[in-house]
Design goal:
- The complex is a heterodimer.
- Chain A is of the alpha/beta class.
- Helix content of chain A is 33%, strand content 19%.
- Chain A has a single domain, classed as 3-Layer(aba) Sandwich (Hypothetical Protein Ychn, Chain: A).
- Chain A has 4 helices and 5 strands.
- Chain B has one domain: DsrEFH-like (Hypothetical Protein Ychn, Chain: A), CATH 3.40.1260.10.
- Chain B has 4 helices and 3 strands; from the N terminus they run αβαβαβα.
- In chain B, β1, α2 and β2 form a beta-alpha-beta unit.
- The longest helix of chain B is centred in the N-terminal third of the chain and has 14 residues.
- Chain B starts with a helix and ends in a 10-residue tail after the last helix.
- The chains are: A alpha/beta, B alpha/beta.
- Chains A and B meet through α1 and β5 of A and α4 of B.
């Protein structure tokens, strides 16, 4: 019986449905009290940029979807190396995110009983 | 159902069932289209029929209602044995009851 879940967000926002869907899944788990964490990695780190303007494409905000997780103490991590590889400075990220090196991401994988990828 | 993902998931579920595992399946995003009833593919396996068959064998199935509605489908358009449900109730229950979680997606 799983008591914890790690949600990997690997896709960028808005052009694809996956990132928003993964954030919503994490919310559903967190609301129910399951230990839940989110890890943005690969192109998923684009979801961490604080200057997103989803209203320009009439899409729901992935920033808001992420911040809703904070109310349920769901931590959201972002892989440092994947930010650097895409030229995204950490100063560009919105508040509340935890930037971690890939080595820590591997630990996160170990700390959760099940993992799902979006 | 043109995509192979649902067929792969169905075969995996059947294989696990044959080995004695209890199996839940949850459709999310584009995955919800797998439970649309009335599929008539000409050149591909009919995943709707396959899902109905494994539902009869005991595989629990649900899909995200929001995703289903977003694609223009309504309750009653799902195959027999599948439930149009929710993340907070059905998927949470499935994950909570499971020792392993397999995600099949592109």
């Amino acid at each position: 019986m799983a008591n914890s879940i790690l949600v990997l967000i690997t896709k960028p926002p808005y052009g694809l449905e996956e990132a928003f869907a993964g954030l919503r899944l994490a919310l559903a788990m967190g609301v129910n009290g399951m230990k839940t964490s989110v890890l943005m990695m690969e192109d998923g780190v684009f979801n961490a940029v604080g200057t997103q303007k989803p209203e320009a494409v009439k899409m729901p905000s992935n920033i808001e979807a992420t911040k809703e997780l904070y109310d349920f103490e769901v931590p959201v991590y972002v892989v440092k190396e994947d930010l650097a590889a895409r030229g995204i400075q950490e100063s560009r990220l919105f508040e509340g995110l935890k930037v971690v090196p890939m080595a820590n991401a591997r630990e996160l994988l170990k700390e959760h009983e099940v993992v799902t990828t979006f | 159902m043109m995509a192979m993902d649902a067929n792969v998931a169905t075969k995996l579920a059947k294989a696990a069932l044959d080995k004695g595992y209890k199996v839940h399946m949850f459709g999310y995003g584009e995955g919800v289209t797998a439970v649309k009833k009335g599929q008539k593919p000409k050149r591909f396996p009919n995943v709707g029929d396959e899902l109905e068959q494994i539902a009869k064998l005991g595989v629990t199935q649900a899909v995200c209602e929001t995703c289903f509605a977003a694609r223009g489908f309504e309750r009653g358009e799902e195959i027999s044995g599948a439930k149009v449900g929710s993340l907070t109730n059905d998927l949470f229950k499935f994950v909570s009851e499971s020792d392993r979680l397999v995600t099949i997606a592109r």
